């Protein structure tokens, strides 16, 4: 312990499943108070008297900040900071730091895993074995579902930062050709193709861009119609990038060869979601767990400790406010 700071982690269970080493973080504080989760009504009470708040998804809004005069630093145990009122924090002189790039290997391999599942029809073949179809076959193998080789196919990437670049490298290792798409709201670049030019060329499209006013419903019915018949779509970025009703329709119509998503517009989808309908063919939905390897979660712990140490030295890093 190098100072007298008191810190409160509002939703510790969203990060640590009991498999992480919190020593890099614990040794920075005189007291680190852990709560599995925190409801909105309990935020102020739990943070009262703390100089440092740690939150993954718990909202710390302007009203809460106004009631917490001791709060000096907010550590977000994720990249997204939409749960923090950044303007209110800035007005109070509270530093907000996030974590960045921690899940690149995990999300990249998840993206390729989903693409490979679509290409090999893994889910369909696994179910065929469970339903005794192979056992009742008249020959040694079962080839009821078309299998696609990735080698020689074209992958379109929307978002070519650290994560998109990692996915591109993995795709190229499978022999795929990679094309980059232009994102709305960003300056044009010679190596980025407009969607109308990109989509008709790709055999698969993966999304790795942020959700903002420019990218919401980036892929809707019009864009899906531009894609090749039989093409694949994989989204491990944000749910709102894809119009979910339009994607469900494209799969039901048979236009797409398959789709996979690790994200939905509302998470958890307690009120239902168009993509959870049981009649949608060739769709894989995973529960926003692409980022969640133990290694990635441990990197978050290390980055939060780094962010705190830099803040103490008055040279803050990964600051968003």
From TrEMBL:
Keyword Ribosomal protein in annotation: no
Signal peptide limits: none
Entry keyword annotation includes Oxidoreductase: yes
Pfam family membership, one: 2-Hacid_dh_C
Organism domain of life: Bacteria
PANTHER family listed in its UniProt record: D-ISOMER SPECIFIC 2-HYDROXYACID DEHYDROGENASE CATALYTIC DOMAIN-CONTAINING PROTEIN-RELATED, D-ISOMER SPECIFIC 2-HYDROXYACID DEHYDROGENASE FAMILY PROTEIN (AFU_ORTHOLOGUE AFUA_1G13630)
Assigned protein family: Belongs to the D-isomer specific 2-hydroxyacid dehydrogenase family.
Name of the protein described by the UniProt record: Glycerate dehydrogenase
Organism of this sequence: Pseudomonas tohonis
